[in-house]
User: Which sequence fits this backbone?
């Protein structure tokens, strides 16, 4: 499990490579925010994994993706919803990013151990 904190206005794709580095996986499932040719080529060439990312609507040449596997992404959305049940996380009481990230890992571990 990995979390990387960024500013609220930053795009998700800026941290995509850092999230997958040193991981072993056969399939990467992500939302349209990760539909970038550079990132997709990295996953296919370096990790030799299947990419399950739906193409953005404005893409000139839409890519095919496995819609059946994409349905598994709901697990991520459910996990995010469970994190929001912890008041200290959703209210962001912590002023320092390092402390907030520590609580995020703690809550993630609690949810994972259930």
Assistant:
């Amino acid at each position: 499990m990995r979390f990387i904190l960024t500013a609220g206005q930053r795009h998700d794709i800026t941290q995509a490579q850092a999230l997958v580095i040193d991981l072993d996986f056969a399939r990467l499932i992500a939302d349209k925010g990760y539909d970038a040719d550079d990132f997709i080529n990295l996953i296919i060439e370096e990790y030799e994994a299947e990419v399950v990312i739906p193409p953005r609507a404005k893409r000139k040449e839409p890519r095919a993706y496995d819609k059946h596997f994409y349905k598994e992404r709901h697990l991520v959305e459910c996990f995010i919803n469970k994190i929001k049940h912890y008041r200290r996380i959703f209210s962001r009481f912590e002023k320092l990013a390092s402390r907030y990230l520590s609580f995020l890992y703690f809550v993630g571990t609690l949810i994972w151990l259930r």
Q: What stands out?
A: Helices lie at 16-20, 37-46, 67-70, 74-83, 87-90, 97-113. The longest strand covers residues 27-29.
